[in-house]
Amino acid sequence: MPIQLPMAPKDLTFAVTRNENAKTPEEREQILANPGFGQFFTDHMVDICWSEWGGWHRPRVQPYGPISIDPAASVLHYAQEIFEGLKAYRWADGSIRTFRPEANAARLQRSAARLALPELPTAHFIDSLKQLIQADADWVPSAPETSLYLRPFMFAKEAFLGVRAAKKVNYYVIASPAGAYFTGGIQPLEIWLSTQYTRAGHGGMGAAKTGGNYAASLVAQQEAAANDCQQVLFLDAQEGKYLEELGGMNVVLVTRDSKLITPESDSILEGITLDSLLQLGRDRGYTTEQRRVSIDEVREGVASGEIVEAFACGTAAVVTPIGVLRNADLRIDFPVPAEPVSLSLREELTGIQYGRVEDRHGWTVRLDAED
Q1: Distance (Å, whole) CA 120 – CA 280
Q2: Hey, how many other C-beta atoms are within 10 angstroms of the C-beta on 330?
Q3: Which strand (E) or helix (H) includes residue 325?
Q4: In this structure, are residues 43 and 22 in contact, taking their beta carbons and an 8 Å threshold?
Q5: What pLDDT does 202 receive?
Q6: Would the pTM of this model clear 0.90, i.e. be above it?
Q7: DSSP-based three-state secondary structure for 44
């Protein structure tokens, strides 16, 4: 059965101001022919205010453009900021859908709670996506494996220099057309195992989707690139031996006795793509385990043949096989099976997202009209 989403609150009525300098149809089509990722943006954005005394108010759709903030805005000094990422897909019938938005709304709420920001109600979150799509539906591409990437985000806008939670916050949604992630075919990743840097620590902000976690990963990503690796894998901050996650993706190990194992830690961001893939695995009869996984277990499991495959997953790439995990002191070459479970799961998940495969779990939600 489809998920029953709460109706948008009656008091949240969006004012819409059309962009008088919107791209022409010809300019838009030129962009959509080769959008890349995160390089171009649609004509409009959503803006909702929050204050301690007024709650959520003044929702609006307005022309995309610069945001004016005071130099003393607390986000610039104390980093009270969170965000989400999900996609809008154009189906063969022309409709526009997204995937599990209520899960993104819940994760945004968990992130907000951790950073002492107000929690945006799920109905407000989903309505904000629908409002932006209504304004910018023509920006959702139709070419295979393309989508419109949606970026909701929230930050503390109050101007003050005292160290406390801000009493004035803004929530926005912007959108960017995204081309096919793998233009030359899916190739296994070569991943650098970081031992010098950690992404987050116990009791920190690792489980929140906040910019600081990504900032912490960038120097390690540079180290990976300097060693000809495409991604970096972090270990735990306490003992330095348990797998955490990549800079922006979760890790899954496949065993010969049909298990899907993924690292568990309070400093790992809960992945919606990961959770969906694990459910599809269970649908196929796989056992799923979320637990601590040491680098020694991985090395020994590959050597013994117990681990038969590894992959990374996230919103942007969906699923990418892992070929090599290495650093100056270690190298693990993962098996590359003739029929990878990872790519089969990817095909099923993307099939659901684009409407090619039956949505047995009611994960897809229409954005351009009511179902």
Answers
A1: 29
A2: 12
A3: strand 318-327
A4: yes
A5: 84
A6: yes
A7: strand
Cα–Cα distances in angstroms (integers) from residue 27 to residues 22, 30, 35, 63, 176, in the given order:
10, 5, 12, 17, 15
Neighbour-count burial for 188-219, b at 16+ CB within 10 Å, e otherwise: bbbbbbbbebbbbeeebbbbbbbebbeebbee
Question: How many Cβ atoms from other residues are within 10 Å of residue 339's Cβ?
Answer: 6
Answer yes or no: are the C-beta atoms of 262 and 253 closer than 8 Å.
Answer: yes
DSSP state of 116: T
The encoded tokens of residue 52 equal: 């301690």
Q: Compute the C-alpha angle 67/70/73, nearest 5°.
A: 100
Nearest alpha carbon to residue 244 among 260, 226, 263: 263
CA separation, residue 354 to residues 60, 71, 219, 336, 351 (Å): 29, 43, 35, 27, 5
Q: What is the dihedral of CA 17, 21, 27, 29, to 10 degrees?
A: 0
Which pLDDT belongs to residue 1?
44
- Confidence at residue 248, expressed as pLDDT on a 0 to 100 scale: 86
Which pLDDT score is estimated for 370? 61
Whole-number pLDDT of residue 11: 67
pLDDT value of position 371: 52
Among residues 245, 223, 249, the alpha carbon closest in space to that of 236 is found at 245
Per-block average pLDDT, block size 10, for the chain (371 residues)?
A: 44 92 97 94 98 96 97 97 98 97 98 98 97 98 95 97 96 96 82 92 90 94 95 92 92 97 94 98 98 97 98 94 95 94 97 98 92 52
pLDDT of residue 4: 46
Under 8 Å between Cβ of 160 and 74: yes
Task: Determine the distance from the C-alpha atom of residue 14 to the mean position of all C-alpha atoms in its chain, rounded to a whole number.
Answer: 26
Give me 212's structure tokens. Answer: 């600081």
